[in-house]
Amino acid sequence: MRRYLARKLIIYVVTFFVAATIDWLLPRMVPGNPVSLLLAKMNLQPQTYNATYSLYMKAFGFNRPWWDQYLNFWRALLHGNLGVSIYDFPKPVTSVIADYVLFTLALLIPAILLAYFAGNKVGAMAARRKSLDNTVLPVGYLLTATAYPWLALLLAFLFAAGGIGHFFPISGGFSYGLIPAWNWAFMWSLITHWFLPFLTLFLVAFGGWAIGMRNLIIYELESDYTHYLEALGAPSKLVRRYAYRNAMLPQLTGLALQLGVIVGGAVVTEVTFAYPGLGYLIFQAVGNDDYFLLQGIFMFIIVGVLVANFIIDIIYVLVDPRTRVGISGA
Amino acid sequence: MFIHKRKMAVGFVVAVAAASLMLPLLSVGASGAPRHASDTVLSFPRNETVYTSGVAYSAPTAWNPMNLGNIATGTQGLLYETLFLYNPITNGYIPWLAKSGTWTNASTYTIVLRNGIKWSNGSAFTSADVAYTIMLAKTNPAVPYSNLGPFIASVTTPDAATVVVHFSSAAYTQWQNFLWHNPIVNKAIWSGMSAADQVTGANATPIGTGPMLLNAANDQEVAYSTNPNWWGIKDLGLSFKFKYLVDIVNGSNNVELGQLLEGNIDISNNFLPGIASLVSSPAATGQLNATGGYGILTYYPKAPYMLSANTVWLEPNMTLAPMNNLNFRKAVAYAINPAQIASVIYDNLVDPANPTGLLPNLNPFISKSVLKQYGFSYNPKLAKQFLKASSYKGQNITIQDPVGWTDWNTATQVIVQDLAAVGIKATAFFPEYAAREANLTDGTYDFALDNNAGPSSNPWSYFDRVFQLPILKKQTAQLNWERDNNPAAWALVQKLGTIPSTNVAASQAIYAQLEQIELSTLPEIPLWYNGAWAQYNTTYWKDYPVSTNAKDQYTPVMWGGWLGNMTTVLALAQLKPVG
Amino acid sequence: MTVVGHEGDLGTDEPVPVDKAPVDSTGEALTAKKRFEFLYFAVRNKKLLIGLSVVVLFALVALLGPLFVKHSMLAYGPPFRPPSAAYWFGTNYFGQDVFAEFVYGLRESLFVGLLGGCGATVIGMTFGFLAGYKGGMIDEALNVLCNVLLTIPGLVLLILIAGFLHHTSAVIEGLLIAGTTWTWAMRAIRAQTFSLVSRDFVGLAKLSGEKSRSIIVREIAPNMSSYLFLVFILLFGGAILVAASFDFLGLGPSNGMSLGIMMEQAADWSALPLHLWWWFVPPGAAITCVVGGLYFANVGLDEVFNPKLREL
After folding, report:
1. Residue B312: CB partners within 8 Å, gap ≥ 6?
2. Complex confidence, ipTM
3. Domain range for residue B127?
4. Which of A33, A41, A45 to mutate to test the interface with B (most CBs of B within 10 A)?
């Protein structure tokens, strides 16, 4: 077990290193200079332009050789310093991310957890009841086949823009008239703004888990050990419990793999609802060629996904007795 | 036991989900939400708050009036003020921090300030602040008006209310522009900053002279509360009937229209597709008929609905063939139908441009005879004739504008069709904003849509933009992006700077010459005027700036230069609560 | 091992129990008799038939639709019209025919999906076979590459790369999607290959001195051909979904039309507040139908290939 986790950990460290390097490299290969972009908004006279230009270039460190910028990147990264945002100049990237990440977590954690548990539950139920299966199967497939932007538009149109009613606000993270504070008005505002983006992410993911669990259980119920158990006269409840537990393993691995897909879905959903999370921020950062902000968000997402992966690994080990013996495979 | 564990797991998951939903509360009081004013409101009462939007595309983080690019809405105009304001609707100046300003001789300008103006920290606003701000043009080359530096010899302050500026050589037009463009900063505070901070610092606790005070800011909005000690209350009898002004960061046009219709935004300064249908005849679309009118107003009650804000022109790269061929440029100019763009894409929210490209407020400067003789208009037949006479050999040319600028992108598609109709092969190309910016400064483009010729009180900065020389390898200042090498025209522009604004006849004659050069050589192909987008919701506030208001016509936009340099503050002072 | 409606199940690291692999028990490639048997079950599988007919229907609309388009996609007619006999899907903000946009958009979306799906399958197969067959360092290296790409959310990576290329065409878009979505397929194929490599017939081929490449092509690939086909179907559907998000964010081809671009334009041009639902409902519904149809057909095929599931 220790060997298994240690192996995983090494892979995560390598992944982190490679991802961080890509993260540093990619934004720099994007054409266009963020400083000239920033200055473009200012409409400066030529006399003023050069002075301001070199001022900003120095402030951002773009005038250094590339290897120095790279070393600096790592030095700063290890100190938790991700530079200064261009999009939100002169705010430090870490504090920009700190503001937005809470909204993304508020969206992702419930969406992932609830969809996973509800999906597995409903999927398992569908596997044993034919009548339920006839609904769950097609609905699940349609949900998982739905494009995030469409579901987001549809929900926004029906429940926010007046297609059916104006039950929810159409955009934002909370009402404009409120200042973030620990009071009911603000909390309620958070909830109403959160609901439709959450529902979008929840529904698509829910369909996937339900179908996955349903199919896995059916495979398990058809497997040799099940037939053997049944032949031994084990109660069907016990058989199903075993099937469920066995099916949880691939579902858990699937959860780790789906994280990236869900984050992608969150980008689109947050953009549609102008929900002030990291996905919305990435989109803004790309549009503004904000190297530091992009790097910061990336590092954050990568670390987040790695941590989530590691948690899932630990749960996996706890759930699956075979791993304790030490099984190969990464 | 097993079941019990399961139930616990479910409870745990639900609890974690619910708890994480409240995560945004952790940002309360964190760095992201600076609080300034001493009053501790947690929400802004709807009937005391004006909500604006359409300026900010990123979170408000800086309030430095010297940093014209990335500052919170309201920094210019609500916090920091200029010596004069310019009214583009009446084409006149309004003394603001200054009581008066006069050329006492050909090289001396004397400013007399209003009495009793105070900075928001209680200290007196004096001639020393003004002199210091002007001298920054010489001492800090990064300030936006440092082009004035070489012309200024010295600045003296005979008393606390008088500033005398001595010029070493004439720069009348540039100086005139400074007077209404650049806000005055506090000497005590600015002299304590590094040169870099003076221009790029965040200035998170702004001390200004203006009508409002910074109240709060977060990633979604910036909020101001009224300044009870503002000089304008006593001196001009102006007062804001609202207590708070909240400017909201833009999500997208689509989201913004929804917010406006819901009454969450009072003044929106964004291009909102479909606004014309909502304003003029809600019945135009079957769906809207059911709900009836939305109580939305625009500056004009009918087309073009909006004031004109800047000129959108097609910029040819004159260093490349076939764009370097005059007949080809003429063919393009005659082939495009701006009226169709205005109607199909903008739903008649904009007007096709005058062939000179000068904004409507500059009409008095346009020579009618030059326009008549040299102007162009949509005429595919003539376009084909010019094309035949040109050096065009059927090559494909690209027209670029930034990806995501939906109205321009669609307009470009229309232009491509117009050009195809006369036999010019063109393709639309939508790079990222930054990439397109680089292509224009480096001269690696064929045609580009561009609109950096903004409003001004005279055509000088417009022609400065068109003809400026020398052409650099990188045209970073956005001037002469088309790379037109016309020394005669540039000499005329420079000459204009030395003519006092009082000598109207002399400057008019030169402007006529410049217009003739422009129209006969077509270094730019003006297409339409982007609107000063403004739409108001009348649920909570009334007396918005509209053209039908006979006596006080003010600018309706919160964009930095308009709020800070033109008459938007006066428009805000007219607003009254409904009911 | 099974192929089901979402990627998670395919991506497991678990060594695949041999008896679950859809491989003939003798290890021989499919015989003519077997093929006939599959066909017999295929035409009787409801899921397969429903899924397939939906996909075929939309493919036909994409292919033959232009014959029924009455208004040029570029012509500007009356704006804001709801669906009618003259404009089947209504007109948009500009007065363009939504049906015309739909037909051409569907074409492009299917094309990008097909390209992305094929590309991802080819990459996934190549790397999966290599890693599974060679093992050792090659396996480790490919695994790390795979892990890195799995960690970085694909769409975010795509957004970045699109900014880098800043001139996307449908072909480039398809290839980009292929380059970022092959990871789970590689893992699954690698696991399958592992289980096949240990079989006698592969060992026999190795002994007889066959080259690795020809063992993979002749012995291993044919034995999982049905499995590979299922993988392709899922990748095809997935690529259509990714392309929709990609286009919706405004990163798609600037001179084209696709279902994602239709939704983007509808959102940008106030379709929600103006209630122009006919502008964004058809493209999204078409995506759901096509991808859902593919997933359905996939389950059906799985049942056809896997005898154990047939009685269900």
Report:
1. B353, B408, B449, B450, B451, B526, B527, B528, B529, B530
2. 0.86
3. 84-199
4. A45
